[in-house]
Design a protein that fits this description.
Blueprint lengths: L3 E2 L7 H14 L10 E6 L5 E6 L1
Antiparallel strand pairs: 1-3, 2-3
Length: 54
């Protein structure tokens, strides 16, 4: 399985964490059914993003 990177980067880890939690709980909104793993990562420029395995 491969990671799917959500298309937006956020300035704070809190913002990315909120999206990660929403993906875990309400993945059907984005067209995914219960992702296997959801993770917050930090880019090389210091911004935060969300990646998940559908």
């Amino acid at each position: 399985m491969r990671w799917v990177y959500f298309g937006k980067l956020y300035t704070t880890k809190f913002q990315a964490g909120c999206l990660a939690k929403r993906l875990e709980e309400d993945g059907w909104i984005y067209g995914y059914h219960d992702p296997r793993a959801v993770e917050v990562y930090q880019s090389k420029k210091g911004r935060y993003g969300v990646k998940f395995i559908p």
